[in-house]
Every structure is written in C-alpha cells, then in structure tokens.
Specification:
The chain is 5% helix and 40% strand. The protein is mainly beta.
Length: 146
C-alpha cells in the first residue's frame, strides 16, 4: 500500500480538539482538507503526522504549541491609539480586526481591552500556546511528480 510522502497531494479528514476535549475545528461535515506534503502550508506537526500514512489509516496525535501555532508571544500584544481606528468603528472587547502592517501585510488581531484613548490588541493566533489533539484519517493520496 502506498504511503504519503513529500510532494504528494493528500486529502485528510480531521477533528481538532483542545486538551479539555473541546472541538475547535473538524472537516467531518465538509470536504476533506487537501494539501501537498512539504509545502509548509499547514502546521508542522500535522504535516509530519500525515507523512507515512496509508489511505484509510487513522491516527490521533498530540501537538505541543511549538509544532502547532507556536507559543503565545508577549510582543504580539500591543496598544493602539483609538484615533487609528477607521471612522465609525466602536471597539469592543472580543472583536476581531483586520489591520495592515507597515509592510502591507494583513494581520488579524483581537481586542482584549478598551481604554479611554487606546485599545489593547492581541495579534497571537487564537490557538497559540495551546496543546492540540488531532484525530486524522487519510482519505486520498495523489502521487507527486517525483
């Protein structure tokens, strides 16, 4: 039986859970996730886990933050003047904003505090610092050109 390897395009069904058992994402009610091994477009530990699997194989993996969305970084929590918000935006704790970095890159941030003149934004990925548990089933392998 063929095993998934770098360069192969794979389709997987997965369910992602936190350590307390809460499901944060699942492909079970939609199309399987498709990606090419070795392109680095998904979290590293997930890609490593799929490599070597055969079609129909299932496994459960537990990823530390370093193999998932990384640790929470204090430097990603910043204050921004309320005057920098678009006109008409009334900031609320828990609201997500799309911002542009100085280099023109789109960044997502969560408002975690609203003060008189500033808002406090957290630019960490919502799953940063979390141990993630994935149940993975390899559905299909399309061999790469090599």
């Amino acid at each position: 039986m063929a095993k998934a390897k770098e360069g192969d395009t794979v389709q997987v069904h997965y369910t992602g859970k936190l350590e307390d058992g809460r499901v944060f994402d699942s492909s079970r009610e939609r199309e399987p996730l498709q990606f090419t091994l070795g392109e680095g477009k998904i979290i590293p530990g997930f890609e490593v886990a799929v490599a070597g699997m055969g079609v129909g194989e299932k496994k459960t993996i537990k990823l530390p933050p370093e193999e998932a969305y990384g640790p929470r970084r204090k430097e990603m929590v910043v204050e921004m003047g309320r005057d920098k918000l678009p006109e008409g935006v009334e900031p609320q704790v828990g609201q997500r904003l799309q911002l542009m970095s100085a280099s023109g890159q789109a960044l997502a941030a969560l408002i975690i505090d609203v003060k008189k003149d500033v808002i406090v934004l957290d630019g960490n990925h919502p799953l940063a610092g979390q141990v993630l548990i994935f149940e993975i089933e390899l559905v299909k392998i399309v061999p790469g050109a090599g």
